[in-house]
Amino acid sequence: MTHAPAVVVRDLHVRFGDVEAVAGVDLTAEAGQATALLGRNGAGKSTTMKVLAGVVPPTAGEVTVAGHDAATDALGVKRAVGYCPDVGGLVPRATPWEHLQLSARLRRMPDWEDRGRDLLERFELGDVAHRVVGGFSHGMSRRLSVVLAALHEPAVLLLDEPFDGVDPLGVDATLEVVADARARGACVLLSTHLRDLALEACGEAVVLRGGNRVAAMQAGELTGEAYRALLD
Ligand SMILES: Nc1ncnc2c1ncn2[C@@H]1O[C@H](COP(=O)(O)OP(=O)(O)OP(=O)(O)O)[C@@H](O)[C@H]1O
């Protein structure tokens, strides 16, 4: 029996006014796989992630996420994914626990509390579970964003710059979340500038440049030299 890949992107274009943020990206990712999205500032990684999360519509091209067409079924896409955006997404006056409550309610999750508590502990946010996030450091906010993306064990986990400003324990907790997601058969896409961590977290790598995919390979093949050559 054949199965459809968890994520299919064909000739994706995203335009914001005069800016073509994504200019013909192709990407396929399977269940149980983790794929790193790499590329210089402005290469189109976050915009591609936003389309995969169902929060920005494709201007042209074909995008299917867990069987849902991003152009016509953005709600279906949102239900299938867990998304850690590159910035924002948190309510400054709410606590981590309230963020979890809201997320669980929106997704009609029964019995989420034990998993929520466990994730907060793994990301060392247990002690601040009832403190408003407005005063959180950048790294603490990033860690909470990963927790929120992972809470409902989504079919497709999208982590946009999850390591940005995060300390080594937070990095380890994030790597563990990626490994757990893969082990239960989820598809993971992770954008980062950190080649070493991309290699550690992911088996596949895709490099974007100027809104185009310039390479797709096994992560192990992405040597420092190869990566630098692809960025130029
Ligand atoms: N809402 C928007 N309006 C106008 N231009 C945008 C918008 N979002 C992104 N862009 C532009 O699209 C291009 C790609 O941006 P994107 O954020 O996807 O890149 P990135 O690879 O994630 O970069 P970084 O590594 O700096 O986060 C950039 O030129 C950016 O300025």
From TrEMBL:
Coiled coil: none
Pfam families in UniProt: ABC_tran (PF00005)
Keyword field contains Magnesium: no
Domain ABC transporter: 7-231
Domain of life: Bacteria
Residue spans crossing the bilayer: none
UniProt xrefs under InterPro entries: AAA+_ATPase (IPR003593), ABC_transporter-like_ATP-bd (IPR003439), ABC_transporter-like_CS (IPR017871), P-loop_NTPase (IPR027417)
Keyword flag ATP-binding: yes
SMART domains linked: AAA (SM00382)
The entry's keywords: ATP-binding, Nucleotide-binding, Transport
Family, per entry: Belongs to the ABC transporter superfamily.
The protein's name in its UniProt record: ABC transporter
Organism: Nocardioides flavus (ex Wang et al. 2016)
